[in-house]
């Protein structure tokens, strides 16, 4: 069975009302990423980090999947190919749309992690620096998301999937953050056809065989319909 690997970024959740990072008015223009998305920032000011992720967790909980998420779930459910979604997003909109084979390489807002002992659990709606870890009791709990300078999750599984893929697509990502920015080159070198679906050309556009410009809620359902016809 053909293997399809789909990388998604903040752009696929933009029409569900969740902010992107580098567009005009994006999150990194409103919050200094070194304060809210690095281990050093967390040690310096855990309350600010929890405030940032509590707001994003509340927003993500209120968001609904859009036609792009739903189309990818249809593609997987059709079982014409083995579909793996590798998402950089920390929201749960792919799962809410019905996708099952989802790998969160940057972690998940809905999960909590203990900075002291590594224990993981379902995050409460709002986290605070005073929360005690259910595992070791230390008050060093953090969102289970991957910060700059930390290792993304599942890299071995992702690289194996890219090498075995017949088709690689990237949706709603600016191609500016590694290692995800290099996935198209990896897939292409292994013989995959590569497609980028994005609102505008990205930093990685030159690595793709095909570019479909537009809003994800429009171009992704059209692309999936073509694959399933
Ligand atoms: N439809 C399709 N693409 C869109 C839409 C939309 N409605 N809106 C925005 N985009 C595109 C933008 O053109 C941009 O190329 O989505 C991309 C969003 O890029 P970023 O904001 O950089 O988000 P992303 O690529 O996911 O960032 C990667 O960087 O900050 C870290 O960990 C964070 O996972 C994130 C990683």
Strand content: 15-25%
Q: What is the architecture of the largest domain at the second tier of CATH?
A: 3-Layer(aba) Sandwich
DSSP helix fraction: 25-40%
Detail the poorly predicted runs: none
Present as ligands are: adenosine-5-diphosphoribose
Q: How many β-strand stretches?
A: 9
Helix run count: 10
CATH class of the largest domain: Alpha Beta
CATH-level-4 superfamily name of the largest domain: TPP-binding domain
**Would you tell me the structural class of the helices and strands?**
alpha/beta
- Quaternary structure state of the chains depicted: single chain
Ends: how far apart? 17 Å
What is the mean pLDDT?
97
- The main sheet orders its strands as 3-2-1-7-8-9
Essential attributes:
alpha/beta; globular; 10 helices; six-stranded parallel sheet; 2 domains; Rossmann fold; 35% helix
Task: Describe the structure in your own words.
- With 229 residues, this protein is of the alpha/beta class.
- It has 2 domains: 1-18 and 65-106 and 152-229, Rossmann fold; 19-62 and 111-145, SIR2/SIRT2 'Small Domain', CATH 3.30.1600.10.
- Helices cover 35% and strands 21% of the residues.
- The protein has 10 helices and 9 strands.
- A 6-stranded parallel β-sheet has the order 3-2-1-7-8-9, with helices on both faces.
- Helix 6 (67-77) runs parallel beside helix 10.
- The protein is globular.
- It starts with a strand and ends with a helix.
- Bound molecules: adenosine-5-diphosphoribose.
- The site of adenosine-5-diphosphoribose has 23 residues, from helix 1.
């Amino acid at each position: 069975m053909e293997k399809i690997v789909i990388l998604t970024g903040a752009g696929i959740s933009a029409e569900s009302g969740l902010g992107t990072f580098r567009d005009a008015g994006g999150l990194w223009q409103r919050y200094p990423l070194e304060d809210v998305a690095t281990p050093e920032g967390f040690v310096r000011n855990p309350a600010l980090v929890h405030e940032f992720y509590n707001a994003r967790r509340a927003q993500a909980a209120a968001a609904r999947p859009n036609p792009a998420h739903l189309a990818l779930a249809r593609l997987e459910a059709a079982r014409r190919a083995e579909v793996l979604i590798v998402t950089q997003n920390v929201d749960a909109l792919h799962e809410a749309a019905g996708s099952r084979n989802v790998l969160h390489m940057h972690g998940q807002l809905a999960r909590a992690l203990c900075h002291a002992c590594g224990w993981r659990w379902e995050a409460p709606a709002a986290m605070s620096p005073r929360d005690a870890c259910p595992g070791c009791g230390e008050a060093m709990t953090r969102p289970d998301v991957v910060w700059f300078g930390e290792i993304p999750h599942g890299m071995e599984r992702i690289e194996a999937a890219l090498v075995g893929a017949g088709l690689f697509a990237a949706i709603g990502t600016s191609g500016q953050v590694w290692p995800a920015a290099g996935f198209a080159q990896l897939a292409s070198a292994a013989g995959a056809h590569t497609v980028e679906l994005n609102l505008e050309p990205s930093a990685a556009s030159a690595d793709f065989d095909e570019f479909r410009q537009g809003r994800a809620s429009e171009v992704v359902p059209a692309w999936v319909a073509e694959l399933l016809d």
